[in-house]
Amino acid sequence: MAQDVGEVEIEQVYAKEHYYSLFLNTSGFGFGYKFGWTPNYKDKHLLDFDFDYSNHEKAIKGTNYSYEGARSFSYGKLYDLFFLRTGYKWEHTTHHKPYWGGVEIGYFFAGGFSLGIGLPTYLEIAYLSPNGYDLIYLVERYDPTIHDLSNIVGGAAFYERFHKLAFRPGAYGKMGLLFDFASDNARVRSLEIGVSVDVLFPPIQQMYQNEAKKAYIEAYIAYNFGSKKLLYEK
């Protein structure tokens, strides 16, 4: 008796791929770039590069309306914090797309070196001029022991803040799920949902009278877009 073995699907294995990432996390945002190779049908090995902004949960922006045209600032914030990451990412596909299309599902782990970059807070400060009537405005690094709401006009211009940057080496790790919905198998169009952790040595104190975090743990969602190449393609 004859047997129906069904349709045979011919799959193309892509040897290389690269993609960009735009993501939002629980304390900020970032972007990234990944490129690597696929040794088999289910696994991918990628070099992972990210640039991530992390705001402190207690940093709330406000404006001192006592001064006209003042910029907003976060009272008590000593640093804005950025992470520059470079490492290795492994992706494993658990459910491939059927031949008519659909969503490919997988999971990933990533880790490597993380460089913490602390951008110090500079403010515009008001001082009484020697004549006792006029005000003089000076840009100074925020010092909570001498600067308060009585003399803080507002935040300094962004370009004024690139003095005495704080650099801290560290490590990072990420894990999560991937959902690739690209209609063309030669392209990457996917959503990435995951959790990341960064640890710096020593840590950076972002807020006055708040201990520096020993670990920065964030949930995030990312949109990835890029392309794949077959083994014979350059």
List the helices and strands and how they pair.
Layout: E1 14-25, E2 28-37, E3 43-54, E4 61-62, E5 73-74, E6 79-95, E7 104-120, E8 122-128, E9 135-141, E10 152-155, E11 166-180, E12 187-200, E13 216-230
Antiparallel strand pairs: 1-2, 1-13, 2-3, 3-6, 4-5, 6-7, 7-11, 8-9, 8-10, 11-12, 12-13
Please give a structural write-up.
The protein is an all-beta fold and 234 residues long. The chain has a domain at 14-61 and 77-118 and 164-230: Porin (Beta Barrel). The protein has no helices and 13 strands. It has strands at 14-25, 28-37, 43-54, 61-62, 73-74, 79-95, 104-120, 122-128, 135-141, 152-155, 166-180, 187-200, 216-230. The chain is elongated. The two termini are 48 Å apart. Residues 5-10 have low confidence and may be disordered.
Structure summary:
The protein is an all-beta fold.
Across the major sheet, the strand order is 1-2-3-6-7-11-12-13
Shape, please? Answer: elongated
Order of helices and strands: EEEEEEEEEEEEE
What's the overall average pLDDT, rounded? 89
- According to CATH, the fold-level topology of one domain is Porin
Q: Tell me the Rg in angstroms.
A: 25 Å
Strand composition percent: over 45%
